[in-house]
Specification:
alpha+beta, about 120 residues, single chain, 2 domains
């Protein structure tokens, strides 16, 4: 009989603790939300790195200043794309694109999309 009473008290305390834990985790009916990690993809080009390149430079000089491009399409061998995207909590916070055009080995044109930043 004594063992049954101890088990009953233990079970009651466990049930009370579980109820309090679930109530503490509750947030407007949502018990738990998954953690969403920060995702960085592509080539992050700083203003200092961008300032180091100019029309007339060679592919090797560009690659030395900016690194390997994110996109180098074999069907558009005269074009390099440096793309960057930052995603936090499932939303795009920042993205940018720098496109370089070459004639043989020489940089002839630079196109860049302004950085798009979203405030959360």
């Amino acid at each position: 009989m004594r063992a049954f009473q101890i088990k009953a008290h233990t079970m009651r305390y466990a049930l009370i603790a579980l109820t309090l834990l679930l109530a503490a985790c509750s947030n407007g009916g949502i018990l738990l939300t998954p953690h969403k990690i920060e995702i960085r993809q592509g080539n992050f080009i700083t203003p200092e790195m961008r300032a180091r390149i100019s029309v007339g430079m060679t592919r090797l000089q560009i690659q030395s200043a900016l690194g390997t491009p994110m996109l180098s399409d074999p069907f558009h061998a005269n074009r390099w794309d440096y793309v960057y995207r930052l995603e936090q909590s499932g939303a795009v916070v920042e993205q940018s694109r720098l496109t370089l055009y070459f004639d043989d080995e020489t940089l002839t044109r630079i196109e860049e999309d302004p950085k798009v930043e979203s405030k959360q």
